[in-house]
């Protein structure tokens, strides 16, 4: 058994060696330097047998992987999980936050110096829920608090909050902290938006300088799609607040299809399920909106609860999450979808066609989704952010040990992660997929 384990360790460690070797092509390194160039916060799932820690052996055995063969068979009395919502998959028992690596390609996304830490926190308020938007002009990120959920401080009688943080302030705080990965806590500034903006849950852009916010509505106040100036006094234009006279259920997420100025948004029943909207009037569906003409139509249906939405770089593929496993006051049901679906976008009608499973999430649900410049897909999940390659293979996780509902790239190599009562900031190698237009 010892020999077999050693062989497996060498096999899986070879990928890490290959990655380190590839880095040396542009900058020659010694064996020790190559070994230490792997991300310091990545999981190390195996060590050399016999305690041999010479540079070459460390490269071969410090695989940085949670090898699927190590948990493919747990045995009759194995530590099986009974809940995807309350039990995490963390076989190395590593303290979050860390990078959990399942495939060598995740190291390309992370780069050798990747770091992750909390940069803003308030344990009494879920201020960082969804709708993250990076503003290149000011290097800020705007976002919305939880609408109707635990610690959201919002309900049928109270609107939720849209806020911003400065990434210049984040980087200054990190520089002051030095080489430590300890958390920092920058200031969070509330945006005073008009009353037409009720229960913001999704956002993207900037779109011709404006934030695009989709709002769930509150009580009789209608859900809406709105353009909001990110600068005070935050002039607002509501583009849409009904479907031929009927209110939407509660709008959830929105994206601009690359190569167009067309908006696509999801509508779902979470406002009702979180006690701040009346009984639903329509199915859970994905809609297409032309901002200029205000024409709106359905492009996809048949969901349990459609939620996050994103597009590939070329705009030919759409991704929609179905979070049916999470049913608000009805509770969680693990036999319902926690699934990301992929669709072909019809080049003429822009309807979503050829629906297929892209990925099924192992922890919680996949909520908001984003893609990087290589079309790897990132999703906020029950344990943090999970990442899949374009073929749907799980590469790794930004393991937070808590729920993330959404995230956004703040330009290349910077990932801002919403985690309800905290915001995490990851410095990685991956490049961003452009979300702002024109």
Automatic annotation (TrEMBL):
The keyword Hydrolase does not apply. It holds the Pfam family SGL. Keywords: Signal. Residues 1-22 form the signal peptide. The keyword Signal applies. Residues 226-413 form the SMP-30/Gluconolactonase/LRE-like region domain. This is SMP-30/Gluconolactonase/LRE-like region domain-containing protein. It comes from the Eukaryota. It comes from Trametes cubensis. PANTHER family: PUTATIVE (AFU_ORTHOLOGUE AFUA_1G08990)-RELATED (PTHR47064), SMP-30_GLUCONOLACTONASE_LRE-LIKE REGION DOMAIN-CONTAINING PROTEIN-RELATED (PTHR47064:SF2).
